[in-house]
Amino acid sequence: MSHxxxxxxxxxxxxxxxxxxxxxxTLLTRELxxxxxxxxxIRHGKSKLRFALQDFSLASVxxxxxxxxxxxxxxxxxESFSGLLLQKSTKSLFEKVMRLLGRLYQGEIPNEILFxxxxxxxxxxxxTQLPHVEIPLVEVVIITRILHHLGYLASQDNDHAxxxxxxxxxxxxxxxxxxxxxxxxxxxxxxxxxL
Length: 195
Description:
Elements: E1 5-18, E2 22-29, E3 33-39, H1 49-52, E4 57-65, E5 70-80, H2 88-104, H3 112-127, H4 135-149, H5 160-163, H6 169-193
Parallel strand pairs: 3-5
Antiparallel strand pairs: 1-2, 1-4, 2-3, 4-5
């Protein structure tokens, strides 16, 4: 019996060891949504997958659905975002966004727009030296976008720049003027999710 192979881009949100050489990993994938998968033998020194599937890295992976779990059969590294954990200014925000995704993204439901948004956010954080005062503004933007794309937060004024636009100084100036309202909406939305 042959199994269908799903080829997709995936962000490794986290992993934990399983047995002597295996890992269970949580992947945010572009085409399949949030997937929990087993990777056989990844902890062996000779494993080719150990470089492709490091925590907080973007990879191109092949997945096969087993009877009980997904299995990663191959992977190619594309980009690592783990360096964001090494920078004091970005570590807290990076961890908060990864936890929020793991908490709110339920099941294997594709959300290509959200996946692209998360990669855009991570690349922005990786490539930009943000002034300390702008980090709370970036936090409000990315959390608003996550909640909006997952259906937890409706847009009251169809603010394209806030919900989809690039990360610019103009966006941050706009967010600075409406930040109290956005924080209140975020907190209310998070309370209502009860997750």
